[in-house]
Amino acid sequence: MNLLSVGASYRTASVGTLEQLAIAESDIPVMLQRLVAQPYIGEAVVLSTCNRVEVYAAVTGFHGGLGDVCSVVADHSGVAAGDLAGHLYVHYDEAAVRHLFRVSSGLDSMVVGEAQILGQLRDAYHAATEADTAGRLLHELMQQALRVGKRAHAETGIDRAGQSVVTAALDLAGDHFPDGVEGRTALIVGAGAMGALSLATLTRAGVGPLRITNRSAARADRLAEAYGATPVPYADLDEALADVDIVVTATAAPDPVLTRDRLAAVLARRAGTQPLVVLDLAVPRDVATDAAELPGVVVIDIDGLASGRRSTPAAAETAAVEQIVAAEVEHFLAWLRGADIAPTVAALRTRADEVVAAELAKLTSRRPEFTAEQRADVSRTLHRVVQQLLHSPTVRVRQLAAEPGGDQYAALLRELFDLDVPLATQADAVPEIGGTS
Length: 437
Known about the structure:
The protein is 54% helix and 12% strand. With 437 residues, the chain is of the alpha/beta class. It has a six-stranded parallel sheet with strand order 7-6-5-8-9-10. A four-stranded antiparallel sheet has the order 2-3-1-4, with helices on both faces. α5 packs across α7 (136-155).
């Protein structure tokens, strides 16, 4: 099996394209099953966030695997594969490992160093585990990716005191208030993970009073109590919109929550000339595209964040994380090379055991006078001789296989000893490299 990653992010696609590609949480299990049902895909993990959609797969061939992934993604999104081609990036084997580790460490994020991607990646991995689409290869890859992300945040200052898409959006929102955002009233629409992050971020920034609303009142009530905000019944959304300066919306609704007509009616009820600043952090978008044209409304969405990024961690911090990523990539590749040699070594030892057994059978037939004890002594002696002969070569070949270019040793052993090692056996015999993150 080889590793393949195919995806689109804020770097390669507009928010409109990401909306088409976005995979709802409820759809991910079905998506995973469709992926592993393809002829070239053996394992799959799907990562879908507000600014990226990626598929990680274990495939039996590059072109076949790529075709299978693109076919499933195109069918799910309703966009022809040819139209998607200009927005997709593709990474294979070592490049796929490096890309995932850069994602997990926050180096590839819109806000460099943000930690939310770790939770999103963990959720993607757990979804694949529950759907039984992550086999031994992707289990190890995802577990190590989570460890890489933790190392990056623990050993460097890459996260810059909790930078996130919310802090970046709030920074841009400050341009529309003469005295900044502190003391401005705000409403959070949506009580998921992004809603909770928004409440925490706005609280730290001194924004308030804060209100929160959600279709499920219980979730909004819990977050409101945790952060000292006021819960608002979802039926009173329009009234709440007319009475705040900032709106942060991050629901999982398939269609816009804030339509042009709704916002126009809200603006008619607002007092003063201060614009309503809406931070739309949802994909698909919560604010209808034509609503942003209304005078008196300022919409900051994922596209606006991508073009308005202002600050990044110091070069020394990103360089330190790049070093961590490089070292961890080599660690994983060494494990991967060792994984290829393990079933071959096992097959060699099995072949040796078969030869010993055959020779013992011949000896027993020629020397029927041997007692059971004598036959056992001869058997133990022969096995010790074989084990001693194979010990040093097999230890050394494992060491050599873990080095760059070491994948040739498994092939050489199979050729020299005429060993038949089925691909399924090779995939099943992958050794452990660490515990679950």
